[in-house]
């Protein structure tokens, strides 16, 4: 008799595990209906879900509370969410400055949203939260690629040096053809690339200053590869010949 009780218990455990797996599968399907994802699901259990972003450098842990009456998610009663915690795993000592900048902008966005738990009180709100986070991660990731591109190929566009400190990027341009050398400092935020970048100019040699740069930047529309296009435009319009 004891044996059959044990068997029944084992069967119940197996059925419960199967149910959990089914919920995870159904939940994943719902989450992936948002066809734009920058996250990877690391864990989904009764207690919590864990998501990784940006090459595992940012982790989101979602802790579940009790079921919510009358609300369903993945064909089962929806769960309340007790907390959403973001954590950085970037080794800032080892990481290149561009990665540190990207990480800073992502956490700037996370903090700008205030309480994530208030905006995401139950599982039904989780896909939207992951989507919002994915958008920012994607834009910041592209920014990181742009900075790497400029550091590698900048000299082709008379860009001598790219210096990154916190959320500021300093670009040092020098052109013997235009007899000009100046530094352009741009302040970046998590809105990049959809907002115009505040800037300042320090002229070292020649007559290219704030006014000339402002005229060029006013013709560069915000959007995809904004930073690269700013550099191309300065090179094209100011540095290719005598002024």
From TrEMBL:
Name of one Pfam family that matches: Knl1_RWD_C
CDD domains: DRWD-N_Knl1 (cd22817)
GO BP of this protein: attachment of spindle microtubules to kinetochore; protein localization to kinetochore
GO terms under cellular component: nucleus
Transmembrane annotation, as ranges: none
Database matches in InterPro entries: Blinkin, Knl1_RWD_C
Sequence ranges assigned to domain Knl1 C-terminal RWD in this UniProt record: 3-144
Signal peptide: none
PANTHER family: KINETOCHORE SCAFFOLD 1
Protein's name in the database: KNL1 protein
